[in-house]
Amino acid sequence: MSTIKSILLHLDASASSATRLWVARELARQHEASVTALFAVTSSFAELPFALAADVSAAQVLQDIDADRRARARAIFDKGVAGAGAPVAWAELVGAPVIPGFIDQALCADLLVLGQHEPDSPLAHDVPPDFVESVLIGSGRPALVIPYASDIDSIKGSALVAWNATREAAHALTAALPLLRAARNVEVVSWAEETGSYGGTTLDVKRYLQLHGIEAAVHHHNAAPAEIGESLLSLAADFDADFLVMGCYGHSRARELVLGGATRTMLRSMTLPVLMAH
User: Fold this and answer.
1) How many CB atoms lie within 10 A of CB 178?
2) Which of 84, 104, 221, 243 has the fewest other C-beta atoms within 10 Å?
3) Are 182 and 30 in contact (CB under 8 A)?
């Protein structure tokens, strides 16, 4: 039976970190899990030419910037863990690139809690813009990605599952089982094409969920829309969904991360938490 016992939260100095921290603690309370908040940002030294960074006065300014960002993140953490609730351990990435360092820790977590990239934020350069997708693909671990522009007051409400009979969708569905069991209702939208003819009792997504104690309404469509990502966001609004479950599609090609259209749209335009897995 799929369970959540280890949660890794990404923490930076942005205000949205407070929301991610609240979500991680709520999940930990519901599933009796442990939470580690990992402060991981790109050092200011990595953003400037070596000659400038090596200058003594410039180096001190950069150190002060990094110290300020850490202090702000720590203040968010201290405020967020005050009072009753699931305990959260503090950790920080020191002297290593953000993405490989976070992936290394993610390998021992059941679930990651990450934040959508906020391109217009003054802190946008603190975390690589492809952080979420790189961690998902590099670690293979499922992640609940939290939109930066959304107020979240529940992660136990209605769920929308995107199903298309792929490895990525199956991985996301399995990872989401603990959340789906606690959901008020579950809607599954499917664009899976028939791949064979079978006799007897067959396996499908509805039966799979039933075997895990989850009753879901399945809405099957033979033809996928041209813009699946936008269609999913529209359906999420129609169903008043509190979170979405979907596969993350992409691969690395010669230092370039190539994403599927639905994944790219969701990471750019998400309006609700999305549990994704590669």
Assistant:
1) 20
2) 84
3) yes
DSSP 155: S
Query: How many other C-beta atoms can be found within 10 angstroms of the C-beta atom of residue 271?
Result: 14
- Torsion sign over Cα 175, 179, 182, 184: negative
Q: Please state, in angstroms and rounded to a whole number, the distance separating the CA atoms of residues 277 and 245.
A: 9
Helices (H), 8-144: 16-31, 50-54, 56-81, 98-106, 131-139
DSSP three-state, residue 264: helix
Tens digit of each residue's pLDDT (9 = 90 or more) over 184-213: 999 999 986 666 677 777 789 999 999 999
* Alpha-carbon radius of gyration of the chain: 20
Q: For residue range 120-135, list pLDDT tens digits in order.
A: 988 888 999 999 999 9
Tokens 């442990």 identify what position?
34
- Which stretch of DSSP H or E encloses residue 208? helix 205-211
The strand pairing partners of 114, in sequence order, are 145
